[in-house]
Amino acid sequence: MVKQEAIFNIKSNTEFKNLALDVFKFQFENNPVYRSFCDLLYKHPSDIIRIEDIPFLPIQFFKTHHVISSLLPPRKIFTSSGTTGSITSKHLVTDVKLYERSYLEGFKHFYNAIEDYVVLALLPSYLERDGSSLVYMANDLILKSKQPESGFYLNNIEDLAKILNSLEARGQKTLLIGVSFALLDVVEKFQFSLKHTIVMETGGMKGRRKEMIRQELHEILKTGFGVTDIHSEYGMTELLSQAYSKGNGVFECPPWMKVLTRDTEDALTLQKANKTGGINIIDLTNLNSCAFIATQDLGKVNDNGWFEIIGRFDNSDIRGCNLMAL
Predict the structure, then answer these.
(1) Whether this model's pTM surpasses 0.90
(2) How far apart are CA 55 and CA 64, in angstroms?
(3) How far apart are CA 164 and CA 288, in angstroms?
(4) What's the CA angle centered on 180, arms 58 and 257, to 5 degrees?
(5) CA atoms of 80 and 123, how far apart (whole Å)
(6) Residue 171: closest CA among 196, 201, 148
């Protein structure tokens, strides 16, 4: 059995590789969906000696199957947002404490302890979007910050503006985290000059505004908030970890998470660094679901393992894997 403590104490690439191989073996033996997927590819733990040999489960399986590596019942089910009638992803989480530790340790790794910050969230509240893993995280960060100003402000940007200016005046470290359209709503009404605030976008126009490229979005937000960089969070329903960008859309993973790219024409072939391809993610905190996921994002990984997102596959772009009939 893989020890959770080992996940958060990875100190080297060798330790990551060895733990990833252990997690693969555990999930091969305990996750029926992933086992069937590996069997169809004729992949067995005895064949897997490198990370690059591990099969990555297409993320669409979270829409059609119960992807779980535990006999315990799920304590929480995170769901993706979707249009009416669309099939949403479901992440069955048997250990919510593991998720909580992942985002708290991950935030601390990049930004120090959450208790140092006031957390202002431009997101739906916990009651409005109960199944969102992002909202769950934001709600817990707000509670753990123990600051009276911390809270959800999506529908109250006038108060948000007053609080931002008040916090700025007293030099309080602040995290303003929100969906792209809401951040744009704020800077259309107010102008700031923030020296003590991290502005972090989580993506998402959700049909509220026209889509725009990251560079355009960030330039508008930098000007409006008076900051030199816009930070970004990269996460999804199917992951229990997040990567962060401190500017320019280049993301870094915590030590227990790794991003690779696959060939767009052959989904089973991984690529070397600096080539655009489909994003594959190893998230070792997905211990009780599946830690090896082939996403629908397109991106590029550089030599030091940092990555950027370039776009998304559409359905016609997904080639090389006809195993979805599992």
Answers:
(1) yes
(2) 18
(3) 39
(4) 40
(5) 14
(6) 196
